[in-house]
Each structure stands twice: as C-alpha cells, then as structure tokens.
Amino acid sequence: MNTPMAPAGAMADSAARALPETAPKNLLEVAAAQGSFSIFCDSVERAGLTELLNGNGPFTAFIPIDAAFGKLPEGMLETLFRPENKSQLADVLYGHLVPKRKTVVEFERWDALKTVNGRNVAIQSVNKQVSFGTGKVMLPNIYSSNAVIHGIDRVNLPTN
Prior knowledge:
Blueprint: H1 8-17, H2 27-34, H3 38-47, H4 50-54, E1 59-64, H5 66-69, H6 76-80, H7 86-94, E2 97-98, E3 112-114, E4 120-126, E5 129-132, E6 135-143, E7 147-152
Parallel strand pairs: 1-7
Antiparallel strand pairs: 1-2, 3-4, 4-5, 5-6, 6-7
Helix pairs in contact: 3-7
C-alpha cells in the first residue's frame, strides 16, 4: 500500500495518540508508552495513586511533561519524593486530574475545571491554545481506555 511519507515525529505522534484496537490501555500505560511522562508515572507510584489511575475513571489528565518538572524550584521534586511527603505529592498530582473525560475542543465552554481533590483550576482556550492553571497544553488529546491525556508544560502547585 502506497501512503505518503509523514515526518518521523508526526508518525510517532499519531501512533501515541491512537487508541489501540486490541486491549485498550489505561492512562498510566498510555502515559508510560508515550515517552514524555516518565517523571509523572514515577510520581504516581511514589504517591500511591497507581490503583486510582488504573481504575475506570473517566479522567481528564493534565500531565506535566518531563521538562515541566525541571521548572520546579530547585530541590522541590526531591522533597516531594521523600516518603514523609507522600500526601503532599498526591495533592500535587490530584490537582492535575479532572473526574470527567474532556477533549481540547470542549475547553472553550469553561473558565475553570474542578479537580478530583475539589480545587477549581482556571482553564483558558485562546486561538486554539489551551492552558490549565499555569501550564500550556503541548500534547493534546491522547486517548486511553479511562482518560483523555493532555501534556502540559508546567506543574501546577497547590496555592494553599
């Protein structure tokens, strides 16, 4: 079959976004396979949220890409990763999860979304650029069996 050649990045991008035809993968499986969310996946395990995110959902997950964690104040990630700070880490991660499945096109309807821990986080869609809290959506609409994932360029930290 002759198909036009797409840039290598475009092919990988569309493959990561497509929902597989056999045995749909959940949020964590898709995030791990995508390649840009390894720190988030590690954080989920350390915070004890694996069972939640392997569950039925549905979720909208605004997942910070790995580079976003590098923008945190120096030493913050290491502090959050300490066992005694497990609940703080979980609180940060909860602030990136919305208990409904939403695609980028739907964000024009709202000015805030309520996260699984009850926080309202500002959402804005201007000229097809979506921001969630302080993060801009860089990787939109990555589908999994229990979520829609949107990769963002910042970690949203609780304000209280």
